Amino acid sequence: MNRWQRLSALNLMRHRRRTLLTGSIVVVGFVAVTMTAGFVSQTFSSLRKATIRGTGGHLKLVDPQAFGKTDDEAAGILLTNWPEIDQVVRKDPRVIQAMPKLQFFGLVSKGEKSAAYLGTGTVPALEKQVSLTTDAIASGTFFENPEGDEVMLGTGLARAIGATAGDLVTVMTTTPEGGLNAQDATVVAVMQYPIKELDDRLLYMPYNVAARLLSAEGKASSVVVLLRGDDVDDVDRAGKDIGAALKASGHPVVVRTWLETAAFYKQVRMLYISIFFFMGLVLSTVVILAVANTMTMSVFERTREIGTLLALGMERGTVRRLFVFEGFLLALVGCVVGTILSLLLREALNASGIMLPPPPGGTKGNLLHVDFIPSAYGIGFAVMSVTLLLASLWPARRASRLNPVEALSHV
Fold first, then answer.
1. End-to-end CA distance of the chain, in Å?
2. Residue ranges of the domains in the chain?
């Protein structure tokens, strides 16, 4: 540190009240950046897990003819060799489970009341491990018998036909070949699904029972694959590898990752990013204005001092650097103090046991946990440093352009 940099530090120490006020703004700004980044990271993580659970896995395998079509159009296009696909998929060590799903539509009735439903045939034991429906049971119990004539209904659908857990209902549908079929089933559970439009139509049935109802034994509308870990790059790589393995074994399918099918997740993520980016701009503007005002007042109060330095031969560029370095030193000290406070506040919040409301699409809240994001601390330091340097430029320029004679006569 040269003598001019030491002079900058001494000037900050001499004006303690002003330095403390400006430094507090830097500290608050740094803490806000790092804590917000940690909270946003946890929010995205919770939403990602809820989205994966909502889809039942990380990958979705569908017939190439069904790709790009609506649910109605794709309902009759089935994978005809589900057991063989399952054998190929399970050879990949990254796969935890592969689950067939049958999507079908029709009417469900109880007595004289009927309502349209959106049906899903799934394997109870596999579905229970990943699905949001396990957390959404309002009454009854999650179905367990893969061969049982059982259904689970959304609360809206159950209310529409006047059904409760334990009642007998009739499920009617159209087979892929166009025939009509019906199945009596017992309502084992009523689910309060978080999305009302689905809650009003949702019906779950064991895969084997649904396959018999649709005359589609061994077939599936899609196969959902659950992987170990949910890193986007790893999921993409696994999807390509599994797709290539299936193609090589004579089972060409379209493999889609959970992110490709998660329009809601992407919309919410973009909304949050936009909100926090706007908040960051506001925060930076406040810091710039506050620091610029403080530095300008410092130049005004130290006019005679600056004039003396210029009269003694200090170059105008050195005077400018003197004030700019004061701003940078404020940023450095403020970020160090902000790091300590941020880490202490993070530990306190994580130990508080505060429950957050459910993420969009979820049914259960999560414990507040502010993630530690090392890059956020680097970004916070960079943002605060650039912000204070920008805020110092105009006061520094004004100080360097003072006339020594006029500055010495300033009162």
1. 33
2. 3-51+265-408, 59-228
